[in-house]
Amino acid sequence: MTDRHHTTSSEIERYAGLFAQRTHHMRSSAMRDLMAITARPEVISLAGGLPDTSTFPPETFAALMAKIARESCASALQYGPTEGFEETKQRIAEVMAEEGMKADPDDMVVTTGGQQVIDLVAKTLVDPGDVVICEAPTYPGAVPVFSSYEADVIQIEMDSEGMRIDLLEETLATLDRQRRRPKFVYTVPTFQNPAGVTLSEPRRRRLVELAQERELLILEDNPYGLLRFEDESLPPLFALDGGEYVLYLGTFSKILSPGIRLGWLVAPDPVLAKIKLGKQAVDLCTSSLTQQLVDVYFEQERWQTYIKELCALYRERRDAMLDALAEFFPPEAEWTRPAGGLFIWATLPDFIDTGDLLAQAIQQEQVAFVPGAAAYVDGRGGSSMRLNFSCVDADLIREGIRRIGKVIREQIALYSTMTGRTTAQARPDERGVTASQSSAEGEDLAEVVHLPDRGRQRRGA
Ligand SMILES: Cc1ncc(COP(=O)(O)O)c(C=O)c1O
């Protein structure tokens, strides 16, 4: 017997002949791999998309569980309906109303996290080779899902106003000419993971119009909408469309806890019926216990206060990260300024590979981030990185950014030594506005984005 963690090639061969075709298309989630490394206490992790669950009062948790034990112990320990409990769906409707959405509990299925929604929607709609459209960069956790269903993923560039809908329209026209109908558009329009940008209102309206004109399905993934630090909220796509072509994915992970593994989908009847069949095959139903936890928790006003507290905390941490980036990253670097959510996206000079940089950052400086390539299906994004600001305190954020800045500067110095050239200075005309300029000009937060173009011809902004 070999060490469980070191599979030998003969062991791989022993099983390889048994693996289904589809396993060849499965790829690992970069974030999940990173979690193992970043769980080491000596590593400062700016990698995960983790909310700070230490902010949730243990006594509140204990009181909620005690209430369940007293009032509904047997049913909390029992299987539940595939679509979820009525009470939970009612609470979900209330959470959605907070963002101006009217959703009917009958159009919902409660899922085991939002991640399961992405999987079930792909399982329901995608045959191998079918087109799925998403943002460039996209949520890194969606990439392995699309790969495992062998989707042909087309990523649409973004700028500071989110997905370029003009480019989407061009793509749709090209697909028309090829007689290919995309199965759906996957988008995280608000405080996007990973780029931190938000789709502007005119673009939201145009995207929904396109969906209606073309009978095009959209999967709106909105884990972060309530984590807003500034600006007015924008209408979710679901609110603009009324749920005809927009399938809505929500989750409790970022406003309560990812440990409870509770998300949901709102979709039209025929889609929902298939989703439920898919879900039955996967896990029969979502945890009764955590659904009941949500019921009793969202009964109280406290949940809104808790979200306000989270927003205040994350805003402070975002500001700490923005300040540290300005202080420690070299002038060639650029980054986004999110008005909410959990992430900043930074782009470095083209010759830096953030995959290599990560290895160096972990080994030498014990700090981690998500390399940008994880957010692309085609190897782009190699000089970008996703930085999370929700999970560690402001001092550690500052120290983490200082350490990453140090390895970046070392790579830049090495490049100069090896090539005899200084690095290209940031060129606002080609590369967007640099961080230092933007703050000097007092631009709005989230106004500036430069998205990665490693190996890419066309520029987004
Ligand atoms: C955009 C997006 N979608 C889906 C998920 C999955 O969340 P969960 O399965 O915890 O609900 C995440 C988690 O980070 C996310 O950022």
Outline the structure in words.
The protein is an alpha/beta fold. It is built from 16 helices and 14 strands. It has helices at 9-16, 30-38, 58-76, 86-97, 113-125, 142-148, 165-177, 201-214, 237-241, 269-283, 288-298, 302-328, 354-365, 394-419, 428-431, 435-440, and strands at 44-45, 108-111, 131-136, 152-159, 162-163, 184-187, 218-221, 246-251, 263-266, 334-335, 343-347, 367-368, 370-371, 384-388. An eight-stranded mixed sheet has the order 2-9-8-7-6-3-4-5, with helices on both faces. A four-stranded antiparallel sheet has the order 10-11-14-13. A two-stranded parallel ribbon has the order 1-12. A hairpin with a 2-residue loop joins β4 and β5 (162-163). The termini are far apart. The model is unreliable at 425-448 and 452-461 (pLDDT under 50). The protein binds pyridoxal-5'-phosphate. Pyridoxal-5'-phosphate (PLP) is lined by residues 49, 113-115, 139, 141, 188, 193, 221, 223, 251, 253, 258, 263.
Structural class: alpha/beta
Strand elements, count: 14
Proportion of helical residues: 40-55%
User: Quick one: overall form?
Assistant: globular
Largest sheet: 8 strands, mixed
Order of helices and strands: HHEHHEHEHEEHEHEHEEHHHEEHEEEHHH
Spatial separation of the terminal alpha carbons: 55 Å
Strand content: 5-15%
Sequence of strands across the biggest β-sheet:
2-9-8-7-6-3-4-5
Number of helices: 16
